[in-house]
Amino acid sequence: MSLKSCVLSLVALTLAIPSLAQTQAPAAKPKSTTSTAAKPSTAATYDHALLKPATLNAKAPDTYQVQFDTTRGIFTMTITRAWAPLAADRFYNLVKHHYFDNSRFFRVSPGFVVQFGLSAYPQVNAAWDKATIKDEAVTQKNLRGTITFAKTSLPNSRGTQLFINLKDNTFLDSQGFAPFGVVDGKGMNVVEMMYDQYGDAAGVNDQENITKGGEKYIAQHYPKLDKINSAALIGAAATTPAKPATTPKPAAKPATTAKPATSAPKP
What we know:
This protein is an alpha+beta fold. The protein has a single domain, classed as Beta Barrel (Cyclophilin). It has 5 helices and 9 strands; from the N terminus they run ββαβββαβββαααβ. The chain has helices at about 85-95, 120-125, 185-190, 200-205, 205-220; strands spanning about 65-70, 75-80, 105, 105-110, 115, 145-150, 160-165, 180-185, 225-235. Strands 3-9-1-2-8-6-7-5-4 form a 9-stranded antiparallel sheet. The two termini are about 25 Å apart.
């Protein structure tokens, strides 16, 4: 199934992936009293291994941590492979190859989910368009702070898009959304600050353009969306599985009806 057919609804979520590595800036020219200040290089590139999804199949550790450095601050999450092995392996390979670097949290539904996973690079999105993983048993509840791959209502449709639950969304359990990790400690304080005033305009209604246009398109149409500066594997594996947060922040206005899609579920 293609990303184009992926739409957000609590019954399905979307996929995608980003990653990049900055190209080396050309040597600076000697200063001149008549020259103007040189403009910083905006050129950037991605890990070209991302163009071959089938080769990124390393098995993840039993547990591992990922640190997200974002425009709202830093938070970490602990992944427990036993919760959903296929999801944990996919996420591990994406992070290892810096797929999420410079991408955006493109859908933020207050009191529901924060969604990400569309690459800043159109060519990377195209490469992962049909790189899906099989469905697997839901062994954990979609509690506040858990991370889960988005999917559509079709079987085996999980790709690169993920969402973090902003509250206990246990109704998603029966729909096949399998959590495989959880945001650590007070990290949800950062997650809950992501810019949410675009509503579903970007995350649900404009995914096709975001997928094809990447960061350039988002910067022009949704410039206030928060960015993942980097997502990286850190530290040693956790000794015990992390537990999801159970206490939501003070009452946020609940979203009306919602369902996830190969985008995230709708509240």
